[in-house]
Amino acid sequence: MDPRQIVLEPIVTEKSTIVRELHNKYSFKVIPSATKPQIARAIEAIFDVKVLKVHTVRMDGKVKRLGRNLGRRSAWKKAIVTLAEGDSVDFFEGV
Hints:
This protein is of the alpha+beta class. The chain has 3 helices and 6 strands. It is 27% helix and 37% strand.
């Protein structure tokens, strides 16, 4: 599978920015069927960095309401990737 099909998009929030600056950990939205080794290989291939650890979290979709109609957002998977000392992802620089 192509690495860009596994990693869907980066997650840029206040919390992820603080964790990135303090602990060199980056957050990404990934496909729900991706495994930790697949995620690590995909990040290494896309950004040319060394991945030390991968933590994954399944995020449940939120229930949303529009008037009296209830709906649900899709569930998704988040990967928190720890990079080696000195490595960084250029996409996040200046954010």
